[in-house]
Design goal:
2 copies of one chain form a homodimer. The first copy, chain A, is built from 11 helices and 12 strands. Chain A is an alpha/beta fold and 331 residues long. In chain A, helix 1 packs across helix 2 and helix 5 packs across helix 11. The relative contact order of chain A is 0.12. The first copy, chain A, binds a DNA duplex (16 and 16 nucleotides) through helix 2 and helix 4.
Chain lengths: 331, 331
DNA sequence: CTGTTAGCGCATTCAC
DNA sequence: GTGAATGCGCTAACAG
């Protein structure tokens, strides 16, 4: 392995000079800089970054904690993070936790043992959480909820849900079903709050029978659709708390011979790439996934740079995407 | 920062003993091991892995080179890789190249500067390729094609395509359209070869007019479907070289009032998660994505361990998934 | 079984 | 502008 010492010898200079040639070439005489460059070229020298990181006490890398890498929303956030990290010369370590807290622990460990300089967590914080925040671990939460006790970037889940439901009300719906996430899921809780607020502002009574618990999976949507279809009368619109469940629900209603949107309107949440390809295309809420990633990375780098961020909570705007899965109810 | 020296002092032992307590505790006397553990606990000591890596000359991490992280096939492969890496105590560095060769170069650089011990490349090798193989860079190719000049894990693209087309022929189709990838794409080339072989074995003449060039995108499928629909007579079945294009084609045919599979059969390739949810569900080829990931990671670790692998090319079995998008042609 | 010693490759003092 | 010397935190001889 060729080291900085070999280069120094080849160039007839000291290792200090070679080191400087790499980190601050402007402090060298033109003459010696040339010599160093020549020697590096000749010996095909590549600095040992492991040594550099050790010496500089920085891993130049960050960890992304993601519950499930096989999820297009998350990968889009990751893209945003990576763009910013790369610009900063940082590597991105992937931490697919598969919703396991022990796995999460393992990855947080990377920061505690200095293999990474900070962490971005892609799941909502909840009150029983012991993973983060943690002293000595620089962390940012991305796409979480309100009241996250460490720096965060997210959308306004309550407002977004409210907007969707208000739209359904505005085109004439009043019996509006909901398929939620797990009752304890912070996103589900916030989106349900938005639903209730929209109803309340329109003076529509909240009917708990119209609220079915799901788990953000396709099957939950399918299953809930069967229950809704059997109600008498069935709701005229369904607000699904993510696109995945909306897809399942659409499938379920269609199997029962109900037409979308003529017989029942469906809305989702996330705007997955496939959602525009469904039959009919899905009305949904688009989260600025890539922007969330970029912003959270920028925030993390402020922490890493010890630049005490002026703002530690960013709420990014969503976009209501009107497509063919919603229409006025039949009279 | 608390170091191994602090622990040694606290325990009244040498740093070497502390080091051994961490790496090979069985060589210590019970007594001293206890002392060390106590001191570690008391001081909340965490070893500096940056130092350890430097000293041991190993980054304990591998890079995944992926053309597009927002692609479910790739993320599934990545899951497989991560499972194995984690078992080995390695971290996974994400290299989303966005199909840019200069980006790819950057990530390969991580190995050359010893920030990573090896690399897994998730795209087919082609003959003009300068990225890999490269001396001193341990690399494995995953989900590529035949004749990759370095260790690889893949499926039999020719055989898989042939199987699909043979099936279509077996249920009575003979005018079978194809939507390919870009002409220069190695996967597209191999799958087309499979298509031709199937025709040839059934003594059906190859008609180049039935082969439309796509680029693996939804739009390519949509566009090709328009051209097929205008042919006189149109083909009775379409072999799409990936699911994404099949989804686009289905949409296009349906918009023109053609029913699937009554008027036209459609097949895909990949078996994306959504493919089973389409209307009708898509007949396709399932690649063992997670297995491809696991196998390629295992192969890379053999290289890293200098265990000269007995086998450097693995061809994994695919699964033909028969769903509702195919049927016999109308008489 | 344990301690002493040396050094991994690099960046940073501090003289000159 | 440059070089000599030092040490980051850890592990691996080697000797005892």
């Amino acid at each position: 392995m060729t080291t900085i010492r070999d280069v120094a010898k080849e160039a007839g200079l000291s290792t200090a000079t070679v080191s400087r040639a790499l980190s601050s070439p402007e402090t060298l005489s033109k003459e010696n800089l040339k010599k160093v460059q020549f020697a590096i070229e000749k010996l095909q020298y590549r600095p040992n970054m492991l040594s550099q990181k050790f010496r500089n006490k920085t891993a130049k890398s960050i960890v992304i904690l993601v519950p499930n890498i096989a999820n297009l929303f998350f990968t889009t956030v990751i893209r945003g993070i990576e763009t910013v990290a790369q610009r900063r010369g940082f590597s991105v370590l992937l931490g697919d936790t598969r919703d396991s807290s022990s796995q999460e622990e393992e990855y947080i460990n990377l920061v505690e043992t200095r293999q990474a300089d900070g962490i971005i967590q892609l799941r909502p914080y909840n009150d029983f959480d012991s993973a983060l925040p943690r002293s000595q671990v620089l962390a940012v939460n991305a796409s979480g909820c309100e009241n996250t006790p460490y720096p965060s970037v997210r959308i306004d889940n309550i407002g977004a849900a409210k907007e969707v439901v208000k739209y359904l009300i505005s085109i004439g719906h009043s019996r509006i079903g909901v398929i939620t996430g797990l009752k304890t899921n912070p996103h589900a809780i916030e989106r349900l709050e938005g639903y209730r607020k929209a109803l309340s502002e329109a003076a529509i009574t909240y009917d708990p029978k119209l609220v079915l618990e799901g788990d953000f999976s396709y099957w939950a949507g399918l299953n809930a659709s069967a229950q809704f279809a059997n109600m008498d009368p069935p709701p005229t619109a369904i607000f699904c708390m993510n696109d995945q469940m909306a897809i399942g629900a659409m499938k379920g209603f269609k199997e029962r011979g109900m037409r979308i949107p003529q017989d029942i309107s469906i809305t989702g949440f996330d705007d997955l790439e496939v959602s525009r390809y469904l039959d009919p295309p899905l009305t949904t809420v688009a989260q600025p996934a890539e922007k969330i990633g970029e912003k959270s990375a920028e925030l993390l780098f402020q922490l890493i740079d010890k630049l005490d961020p002026s703002q530690t909570e960013y709420v990014l705007p969503i976009e209501f995407v009107l497509r063919g899965s919603t229409a006025a109810p039949r009279k």
